[in-house]
């Protein structure tokens, strides 16, 4: 469950704190079972994450104490307990809580104006999930104008008063609390470097550098808090943003931080809050436009997940395989320095590499043992089926070629097109290694998974003949940094005594299949295996 508008989910890409998940085994086709992930609320969080979920709000509450301590103890800076302009605090808290909701559903005249300016069709409403940037200008203006404790109060009030389901209340409070801590630290830095007096009149340019430092502290504290939750709840280590990802996240933050600075300057001017409110109108349209990117990415992810779930219901013993291949492909590409947008497309290609199995008979996919030559040929058509299934999905781009050619071999003995070496698209060469690695380290009904070291040794043995040596080396380097655990069988599953055939065994000679272009074009008819 994502937080509602007004509960401020940061970082600015709109992510909510991690949600504990459980899996349910439900009947699939032909009597099989598939695991479906469902939200389980906060009760199933690991103990460390549960304590962290309480510690952050307690720390935020401590940040509010200067509002109650009068006078402050000796040695405490005067600005930390400066008199509070309560009407200003109340108005900022109200705007922080509701402005994001307004930006999510612009009035019809504004929608028409934005459509005319962009010259493209747009949906009637923004995404259902909140876009954190929609109300960041209001919060950042409070950081610059108010004492630190009052700025923290502006951040946390919407989370305290906003609607929310009972099972998500603690996460909602955590969101507000981590915002309050970020706002408090950011305001402290701004007051140490400059203070609100620099926002007045001709002194405004001198506030730019302290304002930027304050923004950097806000993002740093926020990133540390969210990374801590990700680490404790999901075991995900913090990673640096890639170039494209940093631009996608950083640009909206910079734009709306500048907007917040403008709001603060106007508020301190002769026209007061009225001028600041007028400045928020174009900022809301800007936030709404940025939100369309979130909506589009959500739609892409939903499309991919629907296809993957269909495959995993049909082939129950490969559940989770698609996601792991996508993850391994991203690890490989990360070592190659691939740009963020291509990395995102590659992940989709890895997740969807086996989507063509929807066109293969279920009994062949669930066969516990070797296949006949005819059955093998039927299975080897699945890359073509997959390509035909997804080639009309425009956002997949390079993923089309990766899905079609992920069973090619460097020596030209792969399928469906028998491409050789560099003729094989880069995405396909990456997915080939990721697919084989996860297959070897995963336990299936007919064999046990291999240890990671043994799987890597097999990849290196087949490097140059079956796999691209560059991709194999990239995976080895990635595994030295990132932990990868072999997949164990579900409880109650038995392992059948069927010999495991090494990857590098020679395949039967095959007739040359019809060649196809590596990118786009009409899909081939797979040649005989």
Counted beta strands: 2
Strand content: under 5%
How would the global form be characterised?
elongated
- Sheet with most strands: strand arrangement: 1-2
Please compute the radius of gyration using only Cα atoms: 27 Å
Reported for the largest beta sheet, the result is: 2 strands, antiparallel
Q: On the 0-100 scale, what is the average pLDDT?
A: 73
SS element count, helices? 18
Structural domains: how many:
2
Terminal-residue CA separation: 47 Å
Written description of the protein model:
- By secondary structure, the chain is mostly helical.
- The protein has 2 domains: 241 residues, no CATH class; 165 residues, Hypothetical protein af1432.
- Helix content is 53%, strand content 3%.
- A two-stranded antiparallel sheet has the order 1-2.
- The longest helix has 43 residues.
- The chain is elongated.
- The N terminus and C terminus are likely disordered.
Question: How is this fold's topology laid out?
Answer:
Layout: E1 21-27, E2 33-39, H1 47-63, H2 86-104, H3 108-118, H4 136-145, H5 148-161, H6 169-193, H7 208-234, H8 243-268, H9 272-314, H10 321-336, H11 340-351, H12 362-365, H13 373-379, H14 382-390, H15 399-404, H16 426-441, H17 452-461, H18 469-479
Antiparallel strand pairs: 1-2
Helix pairs in contact: 1-6, 1-7, 2-4, 2-5, 2-9, 4-5, 4-6, 4-8, 5-6, 6-7, 8-9, 10-11, 10-16, 10-18, 16-17
């Amino acid at each position: 469950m994502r937080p509602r508008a007004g509960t401020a989910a940061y970082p600015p890409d709109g992510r909510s704190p991690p949600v504990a998940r459980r899996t349910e085994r439900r009947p699939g086709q032909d009597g099989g079972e598939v695991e479906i992930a469902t939200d389980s609320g906060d009760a199933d969080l690991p103990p460390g994450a549960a304590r962290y979920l309480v510690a952050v709000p307690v720390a935020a509450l401590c940040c509010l104490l200067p509002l109650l301590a009068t006078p402050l103890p000796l040695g405490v800076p005067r600005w930390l307990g400066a008199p509070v302009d309560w009407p200003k605090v109340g108005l900022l808290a109200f705007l922080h809580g509701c402005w994001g909701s307004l930006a999510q559903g612009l009035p019809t005249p504004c929608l028409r104006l934005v459509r005319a300016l962009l010259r493209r069709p747009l949906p009637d409403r923004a995404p259902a999930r909140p876009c954190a940037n929609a109300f960041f200008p209001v919060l950042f203006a409070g950081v610059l104008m108010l004492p630190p404790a009052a700025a923290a109060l502006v951040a946390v009030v919407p989370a305290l008063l906003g609607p929310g389901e009972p099972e998500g209340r603690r996460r909602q409070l955590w969101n507000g609390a981590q915002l309050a801590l970020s706002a408090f630290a950011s305001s402290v830095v701004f007051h140490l470097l400059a203070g609100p007096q620099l926002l007045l009149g001709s002194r405004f340019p001198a506030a730019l550098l302290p304002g930027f430092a304050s923004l950097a502290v806000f993002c740093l504290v926020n990133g540390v808090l969210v990374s801590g939750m990700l680490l404790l709840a999901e075991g995900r280590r913090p990673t640096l943003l890639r170039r494209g990802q940093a631009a996608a996240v950083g640009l909206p933050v910079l734009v709306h931080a500048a907007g917040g600075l403008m709001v603060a300057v106007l508020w301190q001017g002769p026209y007061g809050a009225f001028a600041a409110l007028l400045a928020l109108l174009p900022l809301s349209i800007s936030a709404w436009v940025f939100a369309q990117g979130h909506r589009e990415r959500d739609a892409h992810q939903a499309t991919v997940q629907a296809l993957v779930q269909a495959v995993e219901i049909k082939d129950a013993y490969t559940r989770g395989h698609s996601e792991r291949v996508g993850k391994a492909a991203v690890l490989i590409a990360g070592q190659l320095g691939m740009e963020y947008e291509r990395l995102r497309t590659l992940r989709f290609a890895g997740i969807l590499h086996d989507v063509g199995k929807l066109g293969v008979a279920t009994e062949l996919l669930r066969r516990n043992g070797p296949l006949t030559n005819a059955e093998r040929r039927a299975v080897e058509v699945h890359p073509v089926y997959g390509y035909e299934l997804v080639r009309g999905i425009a956002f997949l781009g390079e993923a089309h070629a990766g899905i079609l050619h992920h069973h090619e071999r460097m020596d030209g003995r792969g399928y469906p097109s028998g491409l050789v070496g560099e003729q094989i698209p880069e995405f396909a060469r990456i997915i080939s290694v990721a697919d084989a690695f996860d297959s070897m380290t995963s336990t299936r009904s007919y064999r046990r998974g291999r240890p990671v070291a043994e799987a890597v040794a097999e990849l290196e043995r087949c490097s140059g003949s079956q796999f691209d040596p560059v991709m194999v080396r990239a995976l080895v380097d990635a595994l030295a940094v990132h932990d990868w655990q072999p997949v164990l069988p579900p409880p109650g599953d038995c392992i059948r005594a069927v010999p495991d055939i090494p990857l590098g065994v020679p395949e039967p000679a095959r007739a040359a299949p019809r060649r196809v272009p590596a990118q786009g074009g009409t899909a081939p008819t797979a040649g005989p295996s």
